[in-house]
Amino acid sequence: MQETVEIQNQADWNALVEERHGHPLQLWQWGELKASTGPWTAHRIAVKEDGAIIGGAQILVRDLPWPFHAISYAPRGPFANDDAQLGKVADACAEWCKQHAASVSLKIDPAVESLNLSDSWVKGKYIMLAKTAAIDLTPDEDTILKNLHSKKARQYIRKAGRNGVVCRPAVEGDLDALLAIYHDTAANDNFPLHPDEYYRAAFDLFGDVGQLFVAEHEGRILSFLWNITSTNGTAFELWGGVNDEGKTLRANYLLKWTAILAAKEKGAVLYDLNGLLNDGISDFKMLFANEPTYWVGTYDKPLSHWYHLWNTALKIRARLHK
């Protein structure tokens, strides 16, 4: 017999995620960030079979205009005791969304390389890229360094240290400086940002699951890297940037190496550099990984006869805003 239960306690939920090697975007703090800064409501759903939990998902629910009611998304979820159970966990979470949120669909994009879903699931428009770069953190430190794809990356990690670059955990007083770097990086590389308040909220909410580091030289912040990390699971790069002086001094190389080691020390077994495009940022990421990693991609489960109309409306809107 299968049932779903909504968990209301942060410690209980995060323990459930980490025991099952769930992705850090399934941690309570990520749901709180999305709920406190945008139109989402976070629900944490455990799936039980014969009284024992087999998996679950943090599900973000967003209200839609009439007559669509709502849409649901499990970022990098669901998770399960083992990958073979992901399909039944996904179906149970979808049924919860239909019954309790009146959702037109549930969107999922678990960080796994294979997935067996029931026939009712369809390929969906992605929110996060399926193609990424990842580093195995299970070997010792020397082996991880030796296994970095690029000899140049190893050289620049050492060079930054010789140049006097120092990396350290960020404090709240660093936020103005690092956000200024992020604005410049976004303008140079042409990607959108949230309002600054979003990142300040993240700093307040993440606590010990957030790993934010800065690289500095003679007291000047040159680069930052901000990860969210689950014990026994994954360190996931969220945001980062580097200024021109930081590029010259190779600060971003030493900073990434510092973040990799910190993730390993925390207990993460995988370091996910979060998405590859055909751009300079992706070229930099691939200096650290031997080959791309391909997750299964994004799937939708239609839960209402309004699903196809909603998808059509989204496609029309996307064409109009090109």
UniProtKB/TrEMBL annotation:
Pfam families: FemAB. This is Peptidoglycan bridge formation glycyltransferase FemA/FemB family protein. InterPro entries: Acyl_CoA_acyltransferase, FEMABX, PG_Glycine_Bridge_Synth. Keywords: Acyltransferase, Cell shape, Cell wall biogenesis/degradation, Peptidoglycan synthesis, Transferase. It comes from Bifidobacterium colobi. The keyword Acetylation does not apply. Belongs to the FemABX family. Coiled coil: none annotated.
